[in-house]
Amino acid sequence: MPRLTLSVVIPAYDEEESIGSCLDLLCAQAADIDEIIVVDNNSRDRTADIVADRAARSPLIRTVTEHRQGLVFARNTGMDASRGDLIARIDADTRVGPDWARTVRDFLTRDTDGRWWAVCGRGEAYDLPYGTAAARAKNRFSPFGRRRAPEVRDVPVLYGSNMILRRATWEVIRDRVSDRRDVFEDVDMGLCVRAAGGRNGFLADLTVGVSPRRMHSPTSEFVRYMVCLPRTLLLHRRFGLAVAAAALYVPGVVVLHAARLLVVRTATRTPIPAARGMP
After folding, report:
1. Contact 100, 68 (CB under 8 A)
2. Are 10 and 38 in contact (CB under 8 A)?
3. What percent of the chain has pLDDT over 70?
4. Buried (b) or exposed (e) across 122-151, using 16+ Cβ within 10 A?
5. In whole angstroms, what is the distance from residue 12 CA to residue 38 CA?
């Protein structure tokens, strides 16, 4: 059975602190990755130089540019430019595990009936000043949180730091996905898959490391970020889920965030930086 080819798309905006590590971990899996596309979305720092340095060492890496500011525009440009049978979308601060690409390719290659249009996995924060306790607590609130589960289970949405679509899936939903910047683009994408008749699979063993910088954002900023979830559900006319998210999920996560922020401040005793990343 021929194995499916895999492209990895990485939108990047001012990611000089993380993009090098992200690319190094991907290049270490060159046997299972066919191309790595970094989409430079008007970076003002050394992101482009770092990517060029890594590209000089690895023929897998290439850069494309998207001048329209915003993650969704960079994501779409990268996925449109990709050539693989499978298109992964991760963040510039994602740290993939050593078997990440092989797990993805093997699972979707075995799925010869195309039952799963897209898959995603879990993200666990790294470099926390208080260890993994809050990350474990977050998983209790997360729709992806039940740790011991079957190899794959059906989920309504995708997780942007660790998601993979079939090329055929992208071609179906390309004109359905929203370009609004006030919604969760990954949730929107997963709901577009479902609306098109496809299924999103959550792979229990597909875990990546993600930056905790969102955890460092002030509570008011975090609230503005989280209200994107019910707004995204309303966009898809998922009214019941939108009400549940606004009334239960978002308040619970905000309370967790406020408690976590207090612990971070206590642990570091330094000013808490605002969350960076793509607007």
Report:
1. no
2. yes
3. 87
4. bbbbeebeeeeebbeebbeeeebeeeeeee
5. 7
Q: pTM for the complete prediction?
A: 0.87
Q: What is the pLDDT of residue 272?
A: 44
The DSSP element (H or E) to which 201 belongs, if any, is: strand 200-210
Q: Which of the residue ranges 3-12, 17-26, 146-155, 189-198 would you say has the lowest mean pLDDT? A: 146-155
Pairing label, strands 86-89, 6-12? parallel
Q: At what angle do helices 228-235 and 185-195 cross, to 10 degrees?
A: 20
* Complete domains list, the chain, with CATH: 6-211 (3.90.550.10)
* Rounded-to-integer distance, Cα 30 and Cα 239, Å: 43
Average pLDDT over residues 79-89: 98
Residue tagged 């595990």 (tokens): 97
Question: What is the rounded CA–CA span in Å between residue 223 and residue 205?
Answer: 30
Task: Assess contact for 134 and 215: CB atoms under 8 A.
Answer: yes
